[in-house]
Design brief:
about 100 residues, single chain, alpha+beta, 3 helices, about 20% strand
Length: about 100
């Protein structure tokens, strides 16, 4: 049988898990990858947070310096919202807006 101390520890653990889930929920959505070095050919690509390339807006290279090759912008609620953001903030731009397969 669980002791009072065991139950208190379990409750603390559950609180931490719930907090972690709430933080993760805020990161769910669509992200725009702005590829500055290649902005003339492939400036923008939209990904979902669950994509292996996006990884909740952190990218797939651990410890990469943000902005060195590109930057993740988001999350957005939809592909349309991400596209609108690009058009409103980067227009005119030389490249095109692509969508990763993860958005389909």
């Amino acid at each position: 049988m669980a002791t009072k101390e065991n139950l208190k520890n379990l409750e603390k653990s559950l609180d931490s898990i719930i907090l972690g889930v709430e933080i993760l929920k805020k990161g769910i959505g669509y992200y725009v990858y702005y590829n500055k070095p290649n902005e003339n050919t492939k400036a923008f690509k939209i990904h979902h947070s669950s994509c292996g390339n996006c990884a909740w807006g952190t990218g797939k290279i651990p410890g990469a310096s943000p902005g060195l090759n590109g930057v993740w912008i988001g999350p957005f609620n939809s592909v349309a919202q991400a596209t609108s953001f690009i058009n409103e903030n980067f227009s005119p731009f030389p490249g095109q807006i692509d969508e990763c397969n993860c958005t389909k």
